[in-house]
Amino acid sequence: MSGTIYKFEREMLKGEDIHIQKKQNHTWYKKHWHNYFEIIYYKNCVGYCTLNGVKHDLSKSCLFFLTPKDFHEIVTRETDNSHSIIISFSEQIVDKKLLDALTEKPIVLYDLPALLRDQIEELSVIFCGKTSYREQYLKHLLNCVLIRILETGQPLSVVSKDISPIVRESICYMLTNPAEHITLDTFAAKFGITKTYFSHLFHDSTGVSFKKYLTALRMECAKRMLCEKELSIIDVGFECGFLTPSQFVRSFKNHVGLTPSEYRARKDAQKPQDETKNI
Q1: What's the Cα-to-Cα distance from 137 to each of 143, 150, 151, rounded to whole Å?
Q2: In terms of C-beta density within 10 A (0-12 exposed, 13-18 middle, 19 or more buried), how is residue 192 classed?
Q3: Strands 83-89 and 54-57
Q4: pLDDT tens-place string over residues 15-49
Q5: In what order do the strands lie in the sheet with 54-57?
Q6: Is the pLDDT assigned to residue 276 strictly greater than 50?
């Protein structure tokens, strides 16, 4: 599992492997999912979080840890001295030994220990600051927070009331097997249903077509590999599930607006000269 590549939007994370927001106003996020990890900490908030179709009321102090395959909706009302901290991050910043445990189930934690609350607040402060070794500080502190969540939190059932178990299992499979040749026929045969029925089920559950989701997943996988792995363009295409180099190049350009070679060259040019330079 440690080699798994999860889709996440680099733009959402502002070019880093972690992005932290502190909010004090009323929020409403309709049902959605994103293919990176997320910690949501609520302090003195009133409202609810619907996670995988199950409604959870917010308490004086609570936390939700979400995996890339969790669907959720968030509604809060503004109250005195209330705020939430949203920590979004990719698997790249997580200790590889933690990934297996973190990808199993979402976690909820009520009445957070004081140390955990302080660490989350400190993460927010460090993220917005310009302290020395900021990147290293964020990574170390986040992993400490994740360990404490795993040790004290309550894992939740992944059985969803409004997301089909078939769709959930399919998404999990796509996220963890980007190199495989996956089609509608793959899942139709796997679950013993017609591909037309599976296609409708997928769209009804997620609001996104199967083809669009799979293409977006492969594109994010390819962009990560082009930036971070010493692989040829051909190898990147195969690792992301494309059958031929021409298919990969054509699909990548249609989706990203650049050829894989152009994208890699642009990202290489944007890299700082001193990789150890503080950010």
Answers
A1: 10, 20, 21
A2: exposed
A3: unpaired
A4: 678 999 988 766 777 777 776 889 999 988 888 88
A5: 27-32, 72-77, 46-51, 54-57
A6: no
Structure tokens at 234: 């051909």
Tracing tokens 């249609």 back to the chain, one arrives at 254
Q: What are phi and psi of 175, to 5 degrees?
A: -65, -35
Structural contact between residues 22 and 43, judged by C-beta atoms closer than 8 angstroms: no
Q: How is residue 161 written in tokens?
A: 């009331």
Surface-to-core class of residue 55, CB atoms within 10 Å of its CB (0-12 exposed, 13-18 middle, 19+ buried): exposed
Percent of the chain topping pLDDT 90: 34
Give the global pTM: 0.61
Asked if 182 and 242 touch (Cβ cutoff 8 Å), the reply is no
Sheet-wide strand order for 37-43:
18-23, 83-89, 37-43, 61-66, 107-110, 154-155
Confidence of residue 254 (pLDDT cuts 50, 70, 90): very high
At residue 104, the 3 state secondary structure works out as: coil
Q: What are phi and psi of 11, to 5 degrees?
A: -65, -35
Rg (CA), the chain: 20
Task: Take residue 113 and report the two structure tokens written for it.
Answer: 């220990």
Q: How far apart are CA 255 and CA 167, in angstroms?
A: 24
